[in-house]
Amino acid sequence: MNILVTGGAGYIGSHAVKHLTACGHSVWVFDNLVYGHREAVDAERLIEGDLLDGALVESVLREHQIEAVMHFAAYAYVGESVTDPGKYYHNNIVGTISLLEAMRRAGVERIVFSSTCATYGVPNQVPIPEDHPQSPINPYGYTKLVIEQALEDYRHAYGWGYAALRYFNASGAAADGSIGEDHSPETHLIPLILEVALGKREHISVFGTDYPTPDGSCIRDYIHVDDLAAAHLAALEKLEPGSAIRCNLGTGTGVSVREVIAACERATGKPIKVVEGPRREGDPPELVADPAGALAAIGWRAEHTDIEALVASAWRWHKEHPNGYAGG
Ligand SMILES: NC(=O)c1ccc[n+]([C@@H]2O[C@H](COP(=O)([O-])OP(=O)(O)OC[C@H]3O[C@@H](n4cnc5c(N)ncnc54)[C@H](O)[C@@H]3O)[C@@H](O)[C@H]2O)c1
Ligand SMILES: O=c1ccn([C@@H]2O[C@H](COP(=O)(O)OP(=O)(O)O[C@H]3O[C@H](CO)[C@H](O)[C@H](O)[C@H]3O)[C@@H](O)[C@H]2O)c(=O)[nH]1
Question: Which residues belong to any copy of the NAD-dependent epimerase/dehydratase domain (predicted)?
């Protein structure tokens, strides 16, 4: 299939591109490289451009006879979305509508969209099933919820098939060590801990030790990027005209911040200095996916379920690329 991957030079998108290509699909990457990395993808498959340029997107869709879009491109810093909401509403909503309209003009009617567990807000039930109310607590989560609704409206109006995949905490790196996580600035827990192991950072702060969890730190569901990539293809293969797939992508197992730190110590063989800090605003105590919906909807379940092995895959990338892609 001819597939356009927006945001394909970013962390999760580049892993999806690698997987789709390995499975024999013809993949084109559309990325403005604001946060993405040229080195993360095959240069011949990279189209540099912005989603807000609808005419360019339309011409790319037509030229490469694109049959389906995987849409990863977005801004994804929760904290920044609170302090600079316009940046998020503009890029994530206006940018996506620009993409959808270009697809409409070019006659492309299948899309797999990167949504997030942040659309649930503070859950009233854990593990979280797909029919849990969606009530985001930050602008980032709202932008993703708006697009979920837009996709439903396009399905209703035009008979499109779409999948909204709500990821939990994307983590890990490709098994062959070729690509990995390189966000700048980095805010995610695992790469920050690994920077301590590399000697680039003095300590890791635990954001809150008084949560109502067994060890007092927050619990999350860490899902390997290779599993996310496989889920995207599984969802795409299920898409029919008029079909709507909404599923959580997680392992179903919660891991606390302290447990992640301990797994990093084991995987790296290095002691990690920990500083206990206050809670970070907007962090729900526990976010864990109910994975049953994804198994039923797209026949997918996470294969990387061991946190130490997941961290080890990330460690391989960070050890070999201590300065990320910039270091070669
Ligand atoms: N990282 C996570 O844990 C997580 C969890 C849930 C959902 N998501 C979602 O998954 C997607 C990918 O996340 P990621 O961690 O790989 O982020 P990332 O920043 O590494 O990748 C996003 C890519 O999109 C590109 N981009 C952004 N706006 C663009 C635009 N207007 N036009 C063209 N390209 C544009 C960026 O340059 C970047 O390469 C995002 O939509 C994010 O909201 C991520
Ligand atoms: O230095 C740090 C960084 C994080 N944490 C904690 O580690 C856990 C994971 O934090 P991350 O920042 O790695 O991930 P989030 O759970 O905040 O964010 C993830 O889930 C969000 C939805 O809530 C968004 O989708 C976002 O893109 C995705 O990375 C949280 O409990 C956080 O408080 C720390 O204790 N110290």
Answer: 3-242
C-alpha 189 – ligand 2 centre gap (Å): 6
How far from the centroid of its chain's Cα atoms is residue 193's Cα?
19
For the CA of 207, the nearest ligand: 2
Active site residues: 140
Q: Does residue 298's CB lie within 6 angstroms of at least one atom of ligand 1?
A: no
256 shares its domain with 240 = no
Burial 290-309 (b: 16+ CB within 10 A, else e): bbebbeebbebbbebbebee
326 within a domain of the structure (yes/no): no
Task: Note the ipTM here.
Answer: 0.97
Cα dihedral sign, 71-73-79-83 = negative
Average predicted confidence (pLDDT) for the chain: 97
Q: Residue 327 — pLDDT band, cuts 50, 70, 90?
A: confident
Ligand 2 contact via 206 beta carbon (within 6 Å) = yes
Residue 82 lies in a domain: yes
Write the pLDDT tens digit of every residue in 9-23: 999 999 999 999 999
* pLDDT, average across residues 263-291: 96
- For residues 128 and 230, state if they share a domain: yes
Calculate what percentage of the chain has a pLDDT beyond 70: 100
0.90 exceeded by pTM: yes
Query: Which secondary structure element, helix H or strand E, spans residue 29, and what is its range?
Result: strand 26-31
Say whether both 117 and 161 belong to one domain.
yes
Ligand that lies nearest to the alpha carbon of residue 138, given by its number in the listed order: 2
